[in-house]
Write a structure and sequence with these properties.
Low-confidence stretches: none
Number of strands: 6
Helix content: 40-55%
CATH class of the largest domain: Mainly Alpha
CATH superfamily of the largest domain: dinb family like domain
Largest sheet: 6 strands, mixed
Distance between the termini: 31 Å
Shape: globular
Strand order of the largest sheet: 1-4-3-2-5-6
Mean pLDDT: 96
Radius of gyration: 19 Å
CATH architecture of the largest domain: Up-down Bundle
Structural class: alpha+beta
Number of domains: 2
Strand content: 5-15%
Order of helices and strands: EHHHHHHHEEEEHHEH
Length: 279
């Protein structure tokens, strides 16, 4: 096993952006209204949301604009999720006035600026926003950037699924998504008790996969890269199932069908609660 290191994704943003623009330019008019896995959002809505997240990155991160004040104070995680969902919904609703050609043009403007902004950040400095789904109070820039990479990747993948376009699931693209997503594990298990030195192994099978181990120490659960010997619980799934699970595209029944738990199932079942998005 090895300690977890930073996830370096800044070099991926320019090409990820080009992949998105190339995809959207090829879509016929009727494809923009196809449904996606993002609940009630169509392809055009997901594209509009991607524009929204990149505009926010530039406004709140690069330019230091304060986010809109919530209508009521945010005192817990659930209220934060409600606030963010409302921000998302307001933008997507307003974007009904923006046609596909304009969406592409706007994305062409902001995408390179986001990549340039991320390329210039001090990776270890505190990010303006913490990665809440990992339980962070303060996150380094590299982790917030990795979170944004997963946001852009998985929404582009939702569009690709909807229009039957080739997925971006080579190891280059997908491994950073999975390596970021599994960092939610210690927070998801924070209230789960187990004997000291108990170990849980998560194996994601496939060319883009990997193995991670969680150990129970005196201060709580700690995540490592690699495999520990004699785990009390082993969780395994394929890489396609893994990303869809982490990004809330499965029902519990589907998760139970596509994720295998061996050993202590009582310890393993908490894995079904792990999410790498704000839900």
């Amino acid at each position: 096993m090895n300690p977890l290191g930073p996830i370096i994704v800044a070099p991926l943003f320019p090409e990820l952006h080009r992949q998105l623009i190339d995809l959207l330019r090829l879509l016929p008019a009727d494809a923009w209204d196809l449904p996606t896995a993002a609940r009630e959002w169509r392809v055009r809505d997901v594209a509009a949301h991607l524009l929204d997240t990149q505009v926010r990155t530039l406004a709140f991160g690069r330019d230091g604009l304060a986010p809109p004040a919530p209508e009521t104070p945010i005192t817990n995680y659930k209220e934060l999720v409600t606030y963010l969902n409302r921000l998302n919904a307001v933008w997507v609703h307003a974007a009904q006035r923006i046609g596909p050609r304009q969406l592409i043009q706007f994305l062409e403007i902001v995408g390179p600026q986001v990549a340039e902004y991320y390329a210039g950040l001090d990776l270890t400095a505190p990010a303006r926003f913490s990665v809440d789904w990992a339980g962070d109070k303060v996150s380094p820039n590299w982790f917030d950037m990795a979170r944004e990479y997963t946001e852009q990747w998985h929404h582009q993948q939702q569009i690709r699924d909807a229009v039957d376009a080739p997925p971006l699931t080579d190891r280059k693209w997908l491994y950073p998504v999975l390596d970021t997503a599994v960092r939610a594990l210690p927070h998801a298990y924070r209230n789960v008790q187990a004997a000291t030195d108990s170990a849980l192994v998560v194996e994601i099978i496939g060319e883009a996969g990997g193995v991670w181990s969680m150990l129970r120490g005196a201060a709580g659960w700690e995540l490592f890269e690699g495999e520990t010997g004699h785990p009390v619980t082993r969780i395994s799934t394929d890489s396609d199932s893994a990303w869809r699970f982490f990004f809330h595209q499965f029902t519990l029944e589907e998760a139970e069908r596509r994720i295998t738990i061996t050993g202590d199932r009582l310890l393993g079942k908490t894995f079904y609660e792990v999410r790498s998005v704000m839900v």
